[in-house]
Predict the structure.
Amino acid sequence: MMSLGVVSVACALALVLLLALWIDQLFGEPRPRLHPVVWMGGYLRVCGSVAVRCKPVAAFVLGALAWCLGALAVGALAWAAQTLLVLQLSRLLLGSDVAGCLAAFALLALAVWLLKCMLSWRMLRSEVAAVEAALQESLQAGRERLSWLVSRDTSSLSESEVRESAIESLAENLNDSVVAPIFWFVLLGLPGAVVYRFANTADAMWGYRGEHRGQNWEWAGKWAARADDVLSYVPARLTAVLMWGVTGGFALAALRCEAAQTPSPNSGWPMAAMALALGVRLGKPGVYTLNSGGRPPQAADTALATTVASKVILALVPSALVAMVLIAMEMS
C-alpha cells in the first residue's frame, strides 16, 4: 500500500477513536442485548460453568482452551471488520461511486460501535458518582450501591471504606475500561482493543484465587488471570504515569513502593497513583493500605478523583492520535 494510503488509514482509525469517545460521552452504554461485552460474558459464563466443576488439571486445560477460542473468535471478527474498512477506504482513494461511499460509511460506523463498546468511561464515572450520592443518603445506601460496582463484601464497610473502595474502583477501571483498550487499539487496531476487553472480562469473571460464590476458580481461572496480567502490564503503569503527569504532585519512587503493596501486579499502580495524587489513604481491609500516611477521603475527593481521571483521558487521547500516525508513517 502506498505511503499516502497507510497514513490515510491511520487517520481513519484515529477518527474511529475520536467518534467512539464522543459517542460514549453522549450516550454511554448500548442496551445489553446489543453489547459485545455482554455477549462475551455470556460465552464466558457458559464455558466457566463447565470448567469450574472439573478437577484441577482438566479445569485449567478447559479454562485455557475456552479463553483461547474466545479470544481468537472475537479477534478474528474485529480483524475482519477492520480489514473490510481498510479495503473500502483504499478503494475510495482510487475513486469510488456513491455505493462505495455508503459502504465505507457503514463500515466506519461498525468500527466506531465496536470500539465504543470496548470503552466505558461515562458508565464508570456515573457509577462512582452514584456511590457518593447514595452515601450522602445513608451508610447502608452507600454500601448497597457500592456492591453494584465491586465484587468485595460491602456489608460491614465504614463510610470511609466505602468511599475508598469507590475511588479505587475508579482508578483501576480507568485503566481497564479506557486506557488499556486505547493502548491496544493504537498498537493493533480493533483486534487489539477487542481481545484486551475479552481478556479483562474473563479475568473479572474467572480470575479469583480460591473460592468465589461457592466455587473454586483457582485452576479454571488461572489462564484468564495470567493473560490479563500480561496484557494490562504496560497500560496499568501508563495510567499511573499519566496520573502523575496531569497532577505532578507526588514522587515516582513513592508510586513504585505503594503499588507493590497490592496482591495484583497491575491494579496497584493506578490505585496508588490516585491515592498519592489526592493525598488520601486507600485500601482493602485486611489486605493492603495505599498511602497509609494520607488522610481518610472526604466527599469532595470522589469528585476530585473523577477530575483527575478526566485529565488522564484528555492527556491520553492526543498522545494516542500522534502515536497512530507515527506508527503508520514508520510502516509505510
Notes: The chain has eleven helices and four strands. The chain has a mean pLDDT of 93. Residues 3-331 form one domain.
